[in-house]
Structure formats: C-alpha cells, structure tokens
Here is the input.
Amino acid sequence: MRISLVFLAISIFTMGWLMSTLYSDLGSFDLENPLSGFVSAKEVSSPAGRIAKEQIHVYEDRIVIDLENAKWAEFTNSNSMDPVLDVDAHSFEVTPQSAEDIKVGDIISYKPTNYGGLVVHRVIGIAEDEEGWYAVVKGDNLSKPDPEKVRFEQINGVLVGIVY
Here is the structure.
C-alpha cells in the first residue's frame, strides 16, 4: 500500500510538471514563425540572386529565361550536394567575369588541381593570401571543406538555376 502511495505521488508530480511545461511553451507560441519551437535550423548562406523576375517569362507552352552566356550542366551521383543536387537534376550556369562575381553561398563548378573532372560545391568562405583571391568550398552533404583553396582561374561556372 505504501509503494502505491509513493507511485501515485510521483505520478501526480510528473503530470503537474509536464502540464506546466506544455502550458508555458504554448504561451510563447509565435504566430509569425509557427515552427520556431520545433525547428532549430542553422542559417546557411544562399546563392546570390542572379536572375531578375523580369528575365523570366512564363507562357502556356514554355518558360523562357533571358540569360546571356548560360551553359547547361548535369551532375554525377557523388551525393556530396544532396539533397540540393543529384544525378537526375539539371542546371544552368554562367561564367563569372571576375572574383567579385563569386559570393559566399554560391554553388560553383570548378576544376580541382588533383582531379580530371569538375566538382560542384558551395562557397562557404572567401579570402586572400600571398597568391591572391581564393574560395573555400564544401559539399552540402559533407562534414569538411574541400582540401584545396579554389582560385578564380579554376572556376568553370556559377549555378543560377536547377531543374528537377
């Protein structure tokens, strides 16, 4: 009988604490950001806007984007940029004219010094050293940045659109 009373007292205390916690969380509910209590996503830099609304024309039978010097790009199944890019995605990119055209958050294609193909990763940092400008890049699905500094001369293009 004594164990039942102890168990009942612990249960009542636990239920009271739980109800108090839930009630206090509901009192701070943010109507403008309803997921604020559930999602704690870290801010990640997004690519720079490069296509103005006026450059996009939607018709019944096609979409036309006025974009000079655009190139088509496809991807291999490396998983380094999942879930943003994968083998079935297609994109278009533009060739940057100068290092100032590259911004943190941009997704670039570049030619590494130790690999024959192109790598497509996000710019997470920009700096200068004794050799000049460079970008630090990383695949979104990777835990560490790429091992080399990416020089402007290595950059093939900047992704400006992805088609799934």
About this structure: Residues 1-41 form one domain.
